[in-house]
Each structure stands twice: as C-alpha cells, then as structure tokens.
Amino acid sequence: MNAKTSKRLNMKERYRIMTRDLGWEPSYQRYEDIFPQESFEGIKIVDWDQWEDPFRLTMDNYWKFQAEKERKLYAIFDAVSQNNGQMKISDPRYLNAVKLFITAVTPLEYNAYKGYARVGRQFGGVGARIACQMQSIDELRHTQTQIHAMSHYNKYFGGMHDFPHMFDRVWYLSVPKSFFEDASTAGPFEFLTAISFSFEYVLTNLLFLPFMSGAAYNGDMNTVTFGFSAQSDEARHMTLGLEIIKFILEQHEDNVPIVQQWLDKWLWRGYRLLSIVGMMMDYMLPNKVMSWSEAWTLYYEEAGGALFKELERYGIRPPKYADQTVIGKDHVSHQAWFIFYQYGHATAFNTWVPTAKEMDWLSEKYPDTFDRLYRPRFELLAEKAAKGERFYNNTLPQLCQVCQIPLAITEPDDDTLISHRDTVHDGERYHFCSDGCRDIFHHEPEKYVQAWLPVHQILQGNCGGADMEKVIGDYYRIEMGEDNLDFEGSAEQRRWAAWKQAV
Amino acid sequence: MSRVFIALQDNENARFIVEAISEDNPAAEVKHSPAMIRVEADDRLTIRRETVEEKLGRDWDTQELQVDMISIGGNVDEDDDSFTLYWNT
Amino acid sequence: MSVRANYANYQGPVRDRVENFHGSQLVYVMWERHLLFCAPLTFLADPAMSFDAFLTEVLTPALAPHPESEKLDFAEAQWRLDGEAFEPRGEASLADNGIGHKSQLRLITPRLSDLADAAI
What we know:
- The structure holds three protein chains of three kinds.
- Chain A has 22 helices and five strands.
- By secondary structure, chain A is mostly helical.
- Chain A has a single domain, classed as Orthogonal Bundle (Ribonucleotide Reductase, subunit A).
- A two-stranded antiparallel ribbon of chain A has the order 2-3. Chain A has a two-stranded antiparallel ribbon with strand order 4-5.
- The longest helix of chain A has 31 residues, at 221-251.
- Chain B is built from three helices and seven strands, in the order βαβββααβββ.
- In chain B, strands 2-3-1-5 form a four-stranded antiparallel β-sheet. In chain B, strands 4-7-6 form a three-stranded antiparallel β-sheet.
- The longest helix of chain B is centred in the N-terminal third of the chain and has 13 residues, at 12-24.
- Chain B starts with a strand and ends with a strand.
- The relative contact order of chain B is 0.28.
- By secondary structure, chain C is α+β, with helices and mostly antiparallel strands.
- Chain C has a single domain, classed as Phenol hydroxylase (Ubiquitin-like (UB roll)).
- Helix content of chain C is 11%, strand content 21%.
- Chain C contains one helix and five strands, in the order E-E-H-E-E-E.
- Chain C is globular.
- Chain C starts with 24 loop residues before the first strand and ends in a 12-residue tail after the last strand.
- Classes of the chains: A mainly alpha, B alpha+beta, C alpha+beta.
- Chains A and C meet through helix 15, helix 17, strand 1, strand 3 and strand 5 of A and strand 1 and strand 2 of C.
- Strand 1 (396-397) of chain A pairs antiparallel with strand 2 (41-45) of chain C, so a sheet runs across the interface.
C-alpha cells in the first residue's frame, strides 16, 4: 500500500497552516512590550520557527482525541459508581493513598493549568504558544477528572472533604504547594524547564506509572482510569518537554549554563517532592507492584540516564547530586512514612505500622537498609501501640527552608545521622535538609527568605493559636478521630467492617 | 546504546498495536504489568500505520495512538505513516 | 548569587525574623543518632530563660516519650551549637550562651541502650 491518499492535507502541512500561519508580525507595538517576560531570565531566542512539535497536533485534532478520551473515562466512572466500586478495593487502608493524592496532587494539576495559561501568553513563538495552550487545557481536564473520580469515594470515606482548603494550609501539603509556587513565580523559561522537562519528562513516570498500576492492582478502577487517561496527555507533554530543552539549548550557547542550573535545581526539588510518592508505593498500597527503589532504578536511572546521555552533546551534564538520589532510594520511602506515622494526628488520612507480611516484603526489597534500620523502629512502634501507647510526636519538627520537608532524611554517607546544613544570610540563619536545597537557596536568597514554613507559622500564632487541636481541627479542618489517627480503631475500619458484614 | 520505550494501556486497541510493533520490530521486548503494557527496544522503535491497520482490520490514524499511550521514552518523529521513537546516541 | 527578577531590587519579606515571634525566639534541638523523633525539634523559647531552665522545663518533657529518656543525663552529654563545639553555662540565659534566634543545638549522648544499634 502506498502512503495514504487523502483529500485532506498531510500532517506536516496541516500543522504549518494551523499553527505557524496563525501568527503575525506586530506593526504598531514593540515586540518587547507584547512579550515583556521573554528576556529577563537571560535566555536568548534567535528563531522561534525552529520550534518543532513532533506530534504536530493541531487544535481540531486535539479536541477530537481529547473528547474520545473523556467519553471512555466517564463511561468507566459511571460503571464504578453504579456497581459499588468502593467495595471492590483490596483493603480500606488503600484509600488513604487516594486521600493523599487528591489533597497533594490534584491541586498541582490546577496550578499547572494556571501556569501554562500564563507562560503561553509570554512566548513570541506561535508553536510554543499553542503547545502551552493545549497543555493548559489538559491540566484543567486532569483537575476535573480527578475530582470526579474521587468524588465517588468521598461519599464513603473521610479526609477528602476540604482538599483545596487543606492544600493551602496543612503542614505536609506545603511541600507540593511551595514546589509549584516556586515554579509559577519563576520566569516562563524556567517554568517550562521545571514543569515540562524536569517534572513531566523525568519524574511523572514515577508518579503515574507504578502508582497507577498499583491502583489497578488494588481494585481502584477510577484512579487507574483517570491516571492513565491523564498520562496519555503526559506522553505528549513529555515529548514537548524534551523538545523545549533541545530548542532552548540549540538557540544560543549562553543558554546552556542557565538551563544546567535549572536542571540541577528542579531535579533536586522534584526528587524531594517524590519522597511522598515513594511512601505511597511502599507503605500505602496493600497489594504491591514494585518498590520505590525499583521504580527509581527503572524510571530515573535507566530512562533518565538515556536522556542525559542524549543531552550531553549540548554541553549538559547529569544533574548535580544525582548520585545522592541513588543512595537515597533505599531510605526515603521509609523515612517519609515514619514522619507521617508519628504526626498521624495531624494528617487527613490514617497511618499504621506495616503488617508482618508487609515488613517481610520490605526486607526483601530493601536488603541493605530495612532490617538494619527501619524494621526495629516499626517493631518498637508496634509494641508501644499494643500496650495502648501508640506513639504520636507532640513536638514540632524542624523544616527545610527550601523543600519544607521535616529534616528527617539522613546523610548520604551516614544513614544514622540526620542531614542538616545551614547558612547565615543578611544576619538571619536558615536551615536545609541537604546540599541540594542549600544550593537552591544560595542562588536566589531573596526568594526563599519568604518561605511560609508551617511550623514557624504555627509558632507565630498565624494558624489559629497555640492549641494544636485547634490548629488541626479549625485551621486545617481535619476532623479529630474521623479523618486522622491510626487505621487500627479508626472510623474507616469500623465502617468497612460493617459494610462487609452487610454484603 | 539507550533504551526507548512506549507504555500503552492494556486494552483491546493496544493488543493489536503491540502485535504490530512486535512484527515490525522483532527485537522489541514486551513487558506486562497490571493494566499496562510496556514495549522497549535499543535506540529505535517504529510503529507503522499499515501494519496496525492490518491487525485492527480498519483505518487507523497515527495520532490515534494518543488515546491509548501512557508514556514514552525517546525523541518522537511522527507523520501520517509512522510513529518513531529514537535516541541519537 | 542573587535572584534574576522581572524588575529591579526584588526582595521577598523575611518571614521568620525574630520580631514576628512576639518576644520569643526559635531554638532547634537535634538529639544526634536518635531517630525516634523523625526530625530535630523546634521550640519557642524566651531568650532570657536560663539554659538549665530550658533543659528542665522545655527539653526534658519533650523527650519523655523516648525509651532512653530515663537514662539521659545532661551532665554526661556533649553539645554543639550551630556547628561548633559548645559548653553551655547552665545559669546563664539562652541569649548569654550565644543561642540566637533559629540556632540549632545538637545533643550528643553516650550509648544508652541497644536501641542505638538502629539509631532509634
């Protein structure tokens, strides 16, 4: 068979006519007045026409394919709700991962929608503007479909009722919130490097692939379906992320060191943020697909390795401190779950000590670290809980000024010592979890001095006073005994048992 | 040498697309996990419209791949007749 | 280095300056290689409070849930302040001991039990 004979234009021609040809040269306004943010970051663009969208997607086809994705997705949501889908999950503990998802990740989708709408306006190139427009609409779609997917569970489970409110206030949600606000308040090229490349290209596979596969394995049809539907857009975003980086690097050699510094920064920030995903995979999925360490090897070391090899010819080296992420992959999920476990009175989900069977799985997956460091910790906690002294940490943790995670991560070369760095800037002392976060601060101290650190805000009296019960209940809107505390003895556990008996 | 990959939803369309990929790229490795199929190859992987159409028994637009695709690794080159993933290394 | 902003002289507000803590200051304490408390602790303290009072009124009750707290003897402990070796004067105030706003104290104790094997 020969190439398709069609009355329609071929893909390349269609793309040219429906993107490039929509632009025009300004005649009565200055270019820099129309695109006032295009140059302040120091990025030099010589020829926007070099911008290439390898998918060559035009708006008409965009709507056609997106509509088809939506039809498929909503048919499944209907089927799940009509067939008591909430009862098909593997174990009610699983749903806690979904609670964390809607409070921590869904609001990021909404921020991404706003972010792409903003930066799309700032580029002189038509191809870049249209790509940002599509991505902006995609991100809004993700926000909406996630809310729809989880609204079914919200009818039966706690912790999801006030997710946008919680995103703006709850201590651990300041980690994703500050991550994205850092990107959104950067210039348009840094935003693309941060979100399109570092986050979408290098890191979202770690969130969506193993985790969504895990949702499928735990009987959560809504989550796996929206996850993969969203990820089908991500595949396009990722490709664009790679093209963007190559485009910027090819435009001017002066762009290379600027982009390198952004890659160092955003890979590190993303790595820290994903500690939460590591914990979801290793601790919150009752039926497990792969360990965080395995996922990091597959999606960061192998896939990311191929990518950075590709970028070498532009003068880009692998991100600084990448070696520390490889050491950290055997620790961070355990350390993160341990934070949430001990502050489980201030979380909008339940926490627990892993079962004996789960601990055996962790031993097998983490032969160098789990039995030596983490099993003894969980066994002590289990012992305390059995005596009716379930451990809750009633003090407040020290936080990193940049990633805002409690300083609970150990030194890369000493896994029994907390990693801590500090610096004095303009007479004020600042603390960090790592060299990576301290570097980021040093690069732009004027920005990070204003970090809204939840612990310090509580102690300044800005979160409803000094009474932690009031902070948690009134300021965060986490309902005591209903949304939080240990899974053992929780309202969720009681309800689940009652439903199962009724069936 | 680097690996390129494509991950597809494990659904009815994907079954035929994967069949077509395997036929056109004999060295490609197919890996199944819950709800997802991942196809990997060294440096290059091409999906040809003609082969997919033959397997599906109907017309197929290369851009339709977007409906079933979950993720990819590699540079993309797409036109009306094929969809290719590759690394330059 | 300094920030590259869209307008000149960009400077965010210093959100945690001591004036915002209504007469108190922040002090962080890390009990080294004791990871039952997942992270160093943050305390609000009066800078005029004596170091001894800080130990008995603030730190001791905070560390009480740790199984080794009963064996913890501050007389046997070593201290570091903001990365330097530190010999606290018990009767002197935090301020006079050089413990400033957002200073970090590290408490280093000899081996107290088998929990040390897993740095609990």
